[in-house]
Amino acid sequence: MSVVKTMSIIGMVFFPLCLILASAFAEVDLEASAGWGIFAAMYGIGYSITVFNKIKNVAKSAT
User: Taking Cα atoms as reference points, which of 48, 25, 49 lies closest to residue 35?
Assistant: First the structure.
C-alpha cells in the first residue's frame, strides 16, 4: 500500500496546484487552463487504476 500512500501525498499537492493554475489561467489563456485540467484528470485516472488494482489484490489475498 506504499504506492497508494505515496500517490495520495503527491495528489494532495498536485490537485490543488492544478486547480489554482487552471483558475488563474481561465481569464488569460483558455488552452493553458484546459491543459492543467487535463494534467489533473490524467493523474486522477492513473491513481484510480492503481488503487483499484491494489484493492483487488488485497481482496483476492484475503479470501
Answer: 25
21-38: per-residue pLDDT in tens? Answer: 999 999 999 999 999 999
Q: How far apart are CA 31 and CA 39, in angstroms?
A: 12
Which triple of cell numbers denotes residue 23? 483558475
Residue 7 amino acid letter: M
Closest to 4 in 3D by CA, of 60, 35, 47, 57: 47
Instruction: Give me the long-range contacts of 20-25 (CB less than 8 A, separation at least 24).
Output: none
pTM of the model: 0.83
Cβ proximity of 36 and 25 under 8 Å:
yes
At 58, the amino acid letter reads: V
